Amino acid sequence: MLHIELVPDLSHCIETVAKKEYEEAVKKLLDIVETNEELEEKAEILRLFLKNANFKKLRVESEKQLMEGRAVQFVVYLEDGIPKYEMKVT
What we know:
Blueprint: E1 4-6, H1 14-31, H2 37-52, H3 55-67, E2 72-79, E3 82-89
Antiparallel strand pairs: 1-2, 2-3
Helix pairs in contact: 1-2
């Protein structure tokens, strides 16, 4: 199972970071000749995450931690075809 790490900061919220990663994955897929299953899976996980996540809630949760000087990392993955995430704070 592929896990994708997304690291927002005070300049880039989790939605922006996820969109950037998705766009990069799709661009790479369009540029390659051979099939890359891991890259395809990454793009699909990010697409579903962007479609289904409650970004207002995620921004509130993560920005509070960031404002307090903590680092925030989201780990996004699929579980039974449903995008899931864990937020890690250090």
